[in-house]
Write a structure and sequence with these properties.
mainly alpha, two-stranded antiparallel ribbon, 4 strands, globular
Length: 338
């Protein structure tokens, strides 16, 4: 099979798992999910949605199934499913059965989705659109969106813990790995650093200070974006029964892919097509964020991305042709257009 066929096979397996984990609420009706309008304007959209076309100052009356509907809304919102696909490919690479990693890989996608829901909140990046539709807080209000993220995060660890196809020892190992990657020494810390560096860093990241801020930027994105990509690959390799040498090389590969991913993300925000991306572009500049583009410029940022992709491929040399999909996946991630 070629790259597209393999990617589709993996992503179809993940979509099936996600539908089972987060089923659609029964009889959704005609209103927006989980809310009922008691004011004027678009049914079910509270004050958070006032900026949307045709939306008035309506207050939502929450229904008891609002969490179920909100969870389904955000998880079924599409997306490339890069992290679970990476996990399944890493499992395949070391000779494991990808079926063994479907549940842990889906759990990582739940964590990634939680991070997007929270990242879109007004107190963070304040985004109106995600994956071609209104963000969770625009539909359900900020409180429900916040709780939706909380539910996704905690549910992810339940999913890993109850994956009976894996030994208890492996499940404990996965819980630890995923918790470390997601929490206060991983993705969450990276988000905190991102907020710390906004505006102040962009103003001072010039001249002799540029290299020092580049190091900080690499650390921040290595935590915020890279940790979850890194743990996706490690989870797959561990489920596949890898040996330590294989785990080290796959980890190195994933770290370089994570770097390329973030640089491309910055490039797309600067020059990408918002129609293709499914969200507004230019947000980094509006928020005064420190990015690879603001620090290095477009050309140098693109060269850094290409260097990271080349190093990712080199990390897989000892696997030979078996790693062709992961090499192609690195290019897909690093050179994507959305």
């Amino acid at each position: 099979m070629d790259f597209t066929q393999i990617y589709s096979r993996y992503s179809d397996m993940i979509e099936t798992a996600l539908k089972e984990l987060i089923p659609e609420a029964a009889q959704p009706g005609t209103e927006l999910p989980g809310v009922r309008s008691v004011g004027v304007g678009l049914p079910g959209v509270g004050p958070a949605g006032a900026g949307l076309p045709g939306v008035g100052p309506s207050e939502p009356e929450l229904q008891e199934d609002v969490l179920t509907r909100s969870l389904h809304y955000v998880v079924s919102g599409g997306g490339k499913r890069l992290r679970p696909v990476l996990a399944m490919a890493a499992c395949d690479l070391v000779g494991g059965d990808p079926e063994l990693v479907v549940q842990p890989a889906a759990a990582i996608e739940l964590i990634h989705t939680y991070s997007l829901v929270h990242d879109d909140l007004p107190c963070m990046d304040d985004d109106d659109m995600r994956r071609d539709k209104p963000t969770a807080h625009k539909v359900f209000g900020e409180a429900v969106a916040l709780l939706t993220g909380d539910a996704l995060l905690t549910y992810a660890f339940e999913v890993i813990a109850r994956t009976e196809a894996l030994s208890p020892e492996i499940r404990i190992c996965l819980v630890r790995e995923v918790a470390e990657a997601s929490g206060e020494q991983g993705m969450v810390l990276g988000q905190v650093l991102d907020m710390c560096y906004t505006e102040t860093a962009a103003a001072f990241a010039v001249g002799s200070e540029r290299n020092r801020w580049l190091t900080r930027l690499e650390r921040m994105h290595g935590l915020k974006t890279g940790k979850l990509l890194r743990v996706s690959a490690r989870v797959g390799a561990l489920c596949g029964g890898c040996v330590p040498e294989q785990l080290a090389l796959i980890t190195q590969y994933a770290e370089k892919v994570g770097l390329a991913f973030q640089i491309q993300d910055d490039l797309l925000d600067a020059v990408g097509d918002s129609g293709r991306l499914g969200k507004k572009t230019g947000g980094d500049a509006r928020l005064g964020k420190l990015t690879y583009v603001s620090l290095l410029g477009l050309d140098r940022a693109a060269k850094q991305r290409d260097k990271a992709l080349a190093e990712a491929g080199q990390a897989l040399d000892s696997f030979g042709d078996r790693a062709d999909f992961l090499r192609a996946l690195a290019d897909y991630i690093g050179l994507r257009e959305r």
